[in-house]
Amino acid sequence: MTTCYQLYIGGAWRDATGGATFPAINPVNQQAWADLPQANAEDVDAAVSAAREAFDGGWKDTNGLTRATLMQRLAELLESDAERMAQLETTDNGKVIRETRVQMRFAARNYRYFAGWADKLQGDSIPLDRAELVDFTTREPRGVAALITSWNSPMAILANKLAPALAAGCTVVIKPSEMASVTTLAFAELSERAGFPPGVINVVTGDGSVGAALTAHSGIDLISFTGGTATGKAISRIAAEHLTPVTLELGGKSANIVFADADLKQAVTGAVAGIFAAAGQTCIAGSRLLVQRDIYDQVVAQVCERARVIRVGDPRDESTEMGPVATKAQHRRVLDFIDRARTQGAKLAAGGGVPQGDVYGRGYFVEPTVFSDVASDSELAQEEVFGPVLAIIPFETEEQAIAIANGTAYGLVAGLWTQNLARAHRVARQLQVGGVWVNTYRTNAAQAPFGGVKASGTGRERGLHALDEYLEIKNLMIDLSNEARDPFAIRT
């Protein structure tokens, strides 16, 4: 039996204009389990109008304490409903239940963290050359933000955007991926229960035409997008028509670099977690494992040994370590990458296909796959697979490792495994990425800024820096002298 959902616009639940719907598909068995509204441009316009009315009608002037109180209440509701929300997300995108539980609580942590900033958005007093001039700044909300999220971690990604937006005093229109929309609509129910005024949070669902209508809308003051680089570029082009600011969290081809002096047990665990957790469907996946030649054979053997015993299965099963990839199209894409890598000179060291068994034949499963001796300029080393496929690349020197790590279009994150603290600092400074982990991987914190450079995007999420994406700086200068002046004189 499928559950039917509605759009959430202006504090009201409503069907999409025209009544069109589309199914949510469970990647474990390819069965439809929810019915979702397919919005159109008219629905998008209604949502943007509702957000504008809420912003101008009082939300932008709501004091920080009130916003913080609502955000804390939302965090409490998300924490108390974490199990149900985790089950919904696991059913929607195939991520193992142990991870979606953690992600619900991490999302709640983000709302709590930014709630703490909501009443602390002070400006600066700026001393000028002339004593009779008083100058200061204020930080004011940008307005209506379009928040567009991906299918791999809908609630975690949304928290990265919505928490600072609410703290800053913005209103929002959320457009989740059509591949995983259920938890976003369920979350809208929590925001309603938390007491947010109508129109502060709006949700429209549907295919890419909904996102296109939203990003092209003249009533949008800011766009924050998480997803593929090609889509990010398209959004930037559309936003340029209105000079709309854009924050982009895009793809990655992250290097996990293991030096010969690393703690190998720790490094191998980090390498396995970096690529096979979430079935490799994360922008921060350590999909390139760079290993110093002295320990190369040893690390390859240990990584393959670990990959072969990963428990692949139903993500709702507590013992499962890796579930399916989320969609039919992604399943085909990953398998095609594997097939091409086999013909392009890489050595298949583990996995390489669909797991055997009836349960796997009904879903979008892929074996944890390892290729060794991968050329650093090959497709597998350059392009984002977004699946459980690891490319292991040997290197000789520190300088070579840095060159290989920087030798892609992407620049999201990187990992370093070494016991040499001086090396860690030295290499980290030279890596063209937005973040570096040393002797850990896929470790996140609400306080730590996250984002990339190059083709991995622009702007930052999480941490204090994320607030700047949703705030404008206004400068106020006051002349206290009461002196008559020459109207044509230059004043400094």
Automatic annotation (TrEMBL):
Residues 13-475 form the Aldehyde dehydrogenase domain. This is Aldehyde dehydrogenase. It holds the Pfam family Aldedh. Belongs to the aldehyde dehydrogenase family. The active site is at E249. Its EC number is 1.2.1.3. SUPFAM superfamilies: ALDH-like. It is an enzyme of class 1 (oxidoreductase). Keywords: Oxidoreductase. CDD domains: ALDH_DhaS (cd07114). Gene3D superfamilies: Aldehyde Dehydrogenase, Chain A, domain 1 (3.40.605.10), Aldehyde Dehydrogenase, Chain A, domain 2 (3.40.309.10). GO terms for molecular function: aldehyde dehydrogenase (NAD+) activity.
